Fold this sequence. Notes:
alpha+beta
Amino acid sequence: MNFPADLKYTKDHEWVKLEGDVATIGITDFAQSELGDVVFVEIETEGETLDSEETFGTVEAVKTVSDLYMPVSGEVVEVNGDLEDAPENVNNDPYGAGWMIKVKVADTSAIDELMDADAYKASIGQ
């Protein structure tokens, strides 16, 4: 499994890449493998300001539906529209084409509270 060192991770299996004050967010390689084949991603929070731990959408796989949680507080400024027609991108490229949202982060120091790759690996027993 792949856990890029330049990303931050949450206990809920989201990854975060901060560029300036905008964070790109998706689910980890571990999460997509546990879910199985992703068939639908629903995110209807574009333009909304959400707090950390709030649900920003759902991902539906063949076996289950899982909520997606905000790793940091901020405004959802962009949703990956490509996932509507190609939800399999979450499985095939979770850290690239499978990204889910971009968030204008309210407080960038909150990113420091998230796990690094080694801590995340340890949290899932890798």
